[in-house]
Amino acid sequence: MRPAIWVGLLVAVGLIAQSPQETGLDPETLLLARIKLRMEETLLRQPDYTCLETIERSRRKPPARRFQLLDTLRLEVALVGGKELFSWPGAREFQDRDLRELVPTGTIGTGSFALHARSVFLSSWPRYRRVGEEERAGRRCHRYDYSVALAGSGYYLRVGERKARVAYEGSFWVDAETLDLVRLVVHAREIPPELELDSVTETIDYARVVIGQSEFLLPSRSETVLVDLEGTEHRNRTSFTDCRQYVGESRLTFDEPPETGPAPPAPVEVELPENAWVDLELASVIDGARSRIGDPVEAILRTPVRRGKEIVMPRGARARGRLLHLERIGGRAGLYVVAIQFESLEHEGRRAPLVARLEEITSALPAGGRPAVAGALPGGVVVRRPALEAIPGAGVFYVRGEMIRLGPGTWMSWRTTKKPDGTAP
């Protein structure tokens, strides 16, 4: 098959290099063929790469005129072997798993990073119609509309446990001189009524980015807007930054780069006893205005973890984890939903995996109040977050206030539980 593929490509290149009179093709057909070939070359020469993805999630309920910012997420997204993979920034590796396992609440989606462009330009299903020339971002562009029937669509929408494949249509703009893709718009069509969605629109902007010694055309930002049947709009604004080639274990961190030298030895793994108390004091700061979902969180162990008389982890050990959720809800008084997941306790070359349940949290808040743990909430205060509470090791709590800032002085009592596989912590 390989020789036949190359012959077909060479024939196509030869035709496109000729004038319309030489090929017998009309100018519009020839222009579309040049654009598709340009996009095929662009998409297929992309290396496996990864970028930092920052998502601002907002909502607007009628008759409000402005969107209300709900939360901001940081994820690392990678294109590896033609698939989009996700992880938290600084995680040890990417895993091929559903994005909902990382972000179980709110509006979230895939495809904007790489897959939508591939489906529009590398598939035989889209039907194209040239609209004409338009100016976009100060550039003279060719605009095309396209549509993909349900039979050829790989576009899925999911609301809760309800999921459906939908047809889609949209437009794209390419630079008239370079034929680089400038913008791609995707509209969902034929949305099943059981999803209770009126419309879904995604807009993706592209720019040239240097990775290593080469330059590639990559998405720079995107916007997704979902409108439900009640008229409420859910908007995600995403930016892609810090892009680099993906090689094996690829990690992204916001810390200062370490000094060069021999790699430290791998930590010795130890096991925590089940049903042990883990008393922690936050070392990181969780700020309602600046913190982002996905940020690393650290805490200090304030009492030793023991197995009988043996000290498994001493006072002063560091607990390392991540901010899983930070959302402001409610009216003027304000109420924040916060979720933290600690993954390990570490001390002097020893590491203990940590799976625990949050039992209590106390803090010297400006108003003199205390955060409330999810399981200890007074009835009817807020809507519970079962998707978050179901994550093993996730501690969900609520804090009242127009703005919150938790840090040193915030104490949390956790109790170790079994791992998801049923084994001890």
**How much is the radius of gyration in Å?**
25 Å
Shape: elongated
Q: Helical percent range?
A: 10-25%
Q: How many separate domains make up the residues? A: 2
Q: What ranges have pLDDT less than 50 throughout 5 or more consecutive residues?
A: 1-18, 250-258
Mean pLDDT: 83
Structural class: mainly beta
- The top-level CATH class of the largest domain is Mainly Beta
Which secondary structure elements does this structure contain, and how are they paired or packed?
Blueprint: H1 2-17, H2 20-23, H3 27-44, E1 49-60, E2 68-80, E3 83-87, H4 99-102, H5 115-121, E4 127-136, E5 139-148, E6 155-159, E7 162-175, E8 181-189, E9 197-211, E10 214-228, E11 233-245, E12 268-269, E13 277-282, E14 286-287, E15 296-301, E16 305-307, E17 310-313, E18 318-329, E19 335-347, E20 350-353, E21 356-362, E22 372-373, H6 386-389, E23 394-400, E24 405-406, E25 411-416
Parallel strand pairs: 12-20
Antiparallel strand pairs: 1-2, 1-11, 2-3, 4-5, 5-7, 6-7, 7-8, 8-9, 9-10, 10-11, 13-15, 13-25, 14-24, 15-18, 16-17, 18-19, 19-20, 19-23, 21-25, 22-23
List its salient traits.
single chain, 425 residues, mainly beta, outer membrane lipoprotein receptor (LolB), chain A, Lipocalin, 2 domains, 11-stranded antiparallel β-sheet, 10-stranded mixed β-sheet, 25 strands, disordered N terminus
What's the quick description here?
The chain is mostly beta strands. The protein has helices at residues 2-17, 20-23, 27-44, 99-102, 115-121, 386-389; strands at residues 49-60, 68-80, 83-87, 127-136, 139-148, 155-159, 162-175, 181-189, 197-211, 214-228, 233-245, 268-269, 277-282, 286-287, 296-301, 305-307, 310-313, 318-329, 335-347, 350-353, 356-362, 372-373, 394-400, 405-406, 411-416.
